[in-house]
């Protein structure tokens, strides 16, 4: 059974970690002030501001920062500053048994996807494909904050995951399935294939999204996922947006969904507002979700946080 971390409340302490690419200090500081203005305390990992080329610090040091947050009894939520690249490198250095015994809220998306799924797969922890530090700013739509706090701070169950009115979601292949939901960024997930941290889609609902990836690369990724059995194993597929993803060879992201995913026959919903787009639905990775592609509904079937003690 998946472990539900403690719910987030105003006044709680959020631990910041930079687990992939570096983020400039000005952005970090302005976003931290926004968090503080919302009523949260903030503590910093040792390498939050660090820069080591493409990543913030060596993989073992970034992993150490993350583990320090799990060890800190005052930290309620661990929030990634950003994604970028390189998060996969920290996975061998994590103590999954300790994390299982000391569960906390973990939120992020983009390259943080690999961490969210690994923590669920190896520590049984429900994690949140939702906001990162960079999203805590006045320009962020109210929808995103509503989704974030509905997932991390309330016990509403069942809870429908809805799109904002201006983003039209579509049920493509009909079907009604219920199971744990996993997934996230396509590029990051494909990078786990053939490693000990390969995503497990067996009897699960798989959701996918991406950004700045041309259609010819998306085709490569879809083909790799298909050949690895990930589409065959899953119960259903939910596709998020592919933001700023160029057409290639006169083929679009939508064209590839129609030519590659529709023929799988799996229940299929497209255009979920999640990931890198302006609007970001909060997806509880590892939680039991009902996907009704016939009625175009996605419903979280259980509370995904606990009160008083992580369960």
TrEMBL record:
Pfam families: Peptidase_S66 (PF02016), Peptidase_S66C (PF17676). It comes from the Bacteria. The keyword Hydrolase applies. CDD domains: Peptidase_S66. Residues 14-129 form the LD-carboxypeptidase N-terminal domain. GO terms for molecular function: carboxypeptidase activity; serine-type peptidase activity. The active site is at 110 (nucleophile), 209 (charge relay system), 276 (charge relay system). Keywords: Carboxypeptidase, Hydrolase, Protease, Serine protease. Gene3D superfamilies: Class I glutamine amidotransferase-like, LD-carboxypeptidase A C-terminal domain-like. GO terms for biological process: proteolysis. Belongs to the peptidase S66 family. This is LD-carboxypeptidase. It comes from Sutcliffiella horikoshii.
């Amino acid at each position: 059974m998946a472990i539900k971390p403690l719910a987030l409340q105003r006044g709680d302490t959020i631990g910041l970690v930079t687990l992939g690419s570096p983020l400039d200090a000005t952005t970090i500081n302005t976003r931290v002030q926004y968090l503080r203005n919302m009523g949260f305390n903030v503590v910093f990992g040792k390498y939050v501001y660090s820069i080591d080329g493409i990543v913030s610090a060596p993989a073992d040091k970034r992993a150490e920062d993350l583990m320090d947050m799990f060890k800190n009894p005052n930290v309620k939520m661990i929030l990634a500053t950003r994604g970028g690249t390189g998060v996969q490198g920290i996975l061998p250095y994590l103590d999954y048994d300790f994390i299982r015994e000391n569960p906390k809220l973990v939120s992020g998306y983009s390259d943080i996807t690999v961490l969210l799924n690994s923590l669920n797969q190896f520590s049984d922890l429900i994690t949140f494909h939702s906001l990162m530090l960079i999203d805590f700013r006045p320009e962020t739509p109210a929808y995103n904050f509503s989704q974030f706090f509905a997932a991390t701070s309330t016990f509403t169950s069942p809870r429908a995951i809805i799109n904002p009115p201006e983003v039209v979601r579509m049920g493509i292949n009909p079907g009604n399935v219920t199971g744990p939901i996993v997934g996230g960024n396509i590029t990051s997930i494909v990078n786990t294939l053939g490693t000990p941290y390969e995503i497990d889609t067996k009897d699960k609902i798989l959701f996918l999204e991406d950004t700045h990836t041309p259609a010819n690369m998306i085709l490569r990724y879809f083909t790799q996922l298909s050949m690895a059995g990930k589409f065959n194993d899953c119960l259903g597929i939910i596709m998020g947006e592919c933001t700023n993803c160029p057409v290639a060879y006169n083929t679009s992201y939508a064209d590839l969904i129609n030519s590659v995913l529709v023929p799988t026959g799996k229940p299929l919903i497209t255009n979920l507002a999640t990931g890198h787009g302006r609007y970001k639905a909060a997806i509880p990775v590892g939680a039991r979700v009902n996907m009704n592609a016939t009625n175009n509904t996605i419903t979280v079937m259980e509370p995904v946080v606990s009160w008083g003690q992580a369960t």
